[in-house]
Amino acid sequence: MNPRVMLTLAVLLLTSVSVAAQQKKTRDQMVRADREKVTTKGFWIYNDFEAATEKAKQSEKPILVVLRCIPCEECVKLDDDLVDQDPVLRPLLEQFVCVRIVSTNGLDLSLFQYDTDQSFAVFMLNADRTIYGRFGTRSHRTEWIGDVSLQGLAEALKGALELHAAYPGNKDSLVGKTGPKPLFDRPELLPSLREKFTSSLDYSGDVAKSCIHCHQIGDAQREYYRSRGESIPDALLNPYPHPKSIGLIFDPNQKATLKTVQSDSISAAAGLTAGDQIVSLNGQPILSLADVQWVLHSAPGTGAELRAVVQRGNITLDKTLSLPDGWRTLDDISWRVSAWGLRRMVTGGMVLESINPNERGSNGLPENGMALRIQHVGQYGAHAAAKNAGFQKGDVVVSYDERSDLMTDSDVLRYGVTANKPGESVSVKIVRAGKPHSLKLPIQN
Question: What domains can be seen in the chain, in order of their start residue?
Answer without folding.
Answer: 27-177 (3.40.30.10), 243-329 (2.30.42.10), 332-442 (2.30.42.10)
